[in-house]
Amino acid sequence: MEEEQICREIWTRWVPKRGQSTVLQGELLRQIERLRHEAQANGNRNWCRDHAFFCAFLDHTLLDSGVLSPEEGERLHGVLVHLRSCGEVAHRYHRGELTERELEEDYHGETACTDDAPYDLVRGAVVRFCQAHPAPIPYQPRPDIRH
Fold it and tell me: pTM for the whole thing?
């Protein structure tokens, strides 16, 4: 089965219309797609601690799962660090903590990664996790997460 089809099935089965999933596989997919949407649709204007949590949770869960080679794990980690960095820069910029000049000089003007490739790489790791763990794994939604 191709990756797109697997993602559609996970989304349909385990991602609710609103809020967090109660199944880990669905929550992993939901989180990377929330990160993609925030960057591509909003330019990370609404970046908050929820998004930073998603980066850390995806990184920790996927790296600890054993489904990635060390090289794949390094790539995944690098992507998630970059996505978080962009979001944190956007947050600081939109709060007025960075000037336009500082944004350009220090961060090359990047507040959001809008290319699909990094999100697709993480999504691919989520699919591999789901293939290695086809039975639903319970996930306890966090009451402090709003997105």
Answer: 0.96
C-alpha distances (whole Å) from 98 to each of 29, 44, 90 are 32, 15, 9
Segment 30-56, tens digit of pLDDT: 999 999 999 999 999 999 999 999 999
Using alpha carbons, select from 105, 85, 74, 70 the residue that is nearest to residue 35.
85
Cα 12 → chain centroid: 19
Chain centroid to CA 25: 13
- Residue 9 backbone dihedrals phi, psi, to 5 degrees: -65, -45
- List C-alpha distances in Å: 7 to 1, 25, 30: 10, 10, 10
All residue ranges of the chain with pLDDT < 70 are: none
* Largest Cα–Cα separation, the chain: 50
Q: How far apart are CA 131 and CA 67, in angstroms?
A: 9
- CA neighbor of 53 nearest in space, from 89, 23, 80: 80
Contact 42, 34 (CB under 8 A): no
- From CA 83, how far away is CA 72, in angstroms rounded? 17
